[in-house]
Amino acid sequence: MTAPSATRPLLHFAPEQNWMNDPNGLVFHKGRYHLFYQCNPEGVVHANLSWGHASSTDLIDWEHHPVAIRDDEAGQIFSGSVVVDVGNTSGLGTTDDPALVALYTQAAQNPNRQSQALAYSIDDGLTWTKYAGNPVLDRGTSDFRDPKVFRYDGPAGAYWVMVAVEAVDRQAMLYRSDDLINWTFLSAFGPQRAVDGVWECPDLFPLAVEGDPGDVRWVLLISLNPGGIAGGSGTQYFIGDFDGVTFAADDDATGDAIDWLDFGRDCYAGVTFDALAQADRTLIAWMSNWDYVGSLHAADGTLRHPMMTLPRRLSLVSRDGSLRLRQQPVSVQLADERVLEDIPVAGSRVVFEEIPDAGRISVRIDVLGAAGFALRLRFDGADEGVVMLTYDADARQLSVGRTDGNVAIHDDFPGSQMMPVAGGNLIDLEIWLDRASIEVFADGGTRVLTDLLAPQHGRALAVEGVGGQVHIERIAVADAVGPDMPIG
């Protein structure tokens, strides 16, 4: 069954129907971005896991394709990745027309075993053939999953590298191959830092530090559940070095502190596209949380399509003597902004009577001597259905408070999520709204908070000075523009 049209996201990727979770096999090939994802072709619950498929030329307008890799008697199709086999190292395509090769987790139930299997496509990802010799990598364990494969070319040589996880052991396992079929062990990383849940969906890639293209570091993403910073599902990242064999996290970056990709409740299993230039490294994550995802399909009016986050361009920047991962939304078209400037606010003031179902709010506020400020989104003059974004100047902290509207979704759904920021009097925020979600980018994109939202009833945006007067230097609202979102 499909979600009611009033809750279908306008700005984010969502399947046409049924269950969806982790993004898989993100790859850029012949001018198209391919997004595969965990799906249940038969219903709205987490079962019969297979790979759904959509593609796009711009990361905005997605064309839906038939199910790509279907579960069978060998097991369900868990998370994995896709590479373009340039050079035809596998022999499954040709040198002139290389195959797309998927490495994914084959999850068998009797006995309970997870191993890595291969499928390939010679028609640009539209149809897939499972390799007759599957599985291609089997450790004989029950929680070895989520292979992310990339082409390494460095001092140690040129070959394929796989990073997967022994989930319960909280270890990232590294393997190498010359042909994508035969794999040999390189090394293991972890457990380190956030270990209160199982490790899942790793990704490992190089990024240059902004302003110094010769300073290239390696970033390791690890999703974990539970144990996320906001509760339940979350994703941490490590910055370090990979020499072709071993990944080592930098001690001089943040030490034992945990770097979180996102401080909200609903950004999980994010991975990046293969075959893009290093400077175009782009991530998409699943916008949900295992704490309550099952309840999101429970009742009419609370249902929203499962969806992915906005695509985010990644880079490394130096902040306060440490390197941080920076995320910036990409490929979103906007109508002309409605802009207000130079507005003093004492108490509460409605600044826009209407904000879009989907679009961006840009805010620059001088706190002056106040304790902070609050933004009421979807404001209707009452507390019901209001989303509150608050800045606490003393704590140097942003928080997003959400309710579950007029229908109880789950005990863990309402509440507030906190995010540390650099602080100071002048605060710049970039807020992206959709019908059932909010993504807040602060500190130039080095701090991000993503939350699903219950259906909201208000349309206005109000600003409130907390503990004194604040000054709005600039606040702007712009509607998103897409194939189903005409201007005006």
Key features?
488 residues; 7-stranded antiparallel sheet; disordered C terminus; 6-stranded antiparallel sheet; mainly beta; Tachylectin-2, Chain A; Jelly Rolls
Structure report:
This protein is mainly beta and 488 residues long. The protein folds into two domains: 13-329, Tachylectin-2, Chain A; 335-481, Exo-inulinase, domain 1 (Jelly Rolls, Sandwich), CATH 2.60.120.560. 0% of the residues lie in helices and 51% in strands. The protein contains no helices and 34 strands. The chain has strands at residues 20-29, 32-39, 50-56, 63-69, 76-84, 100-108, 113-121, 129-130, 144-154, 157-166, 171-177, 184-189, 198-209, 212-225, 234-242, 247-249, 259-260, 268-272, 282-286, 312-319, 322-329, 333-334, 338-345, 348-352, 359-366, 372-379, 387-392, 397-402, 415-420, 426-434, 437-442, 447-452, 460-466, 470-481. Strands 22, 23, 25, 30, 31, 32 and 34 form a seven-stranded antiparallel sheet that branches. A six-stranded antiparallel sheet has the order 24-33-26-27-28-29, with no helix packed on it. A hairpin with a 4-residue loop joins β6 (100-108) and β7. It is globular. The model is unreliable at 483-488 (pLDDT under 50).
Report a brief summary of the structure.
The protein contains no helices and 34 strands. The protein is mainly β and 488 residues long. Residues 12-329 form the Glycosyl hydrolase family 32 N-terminal domain.
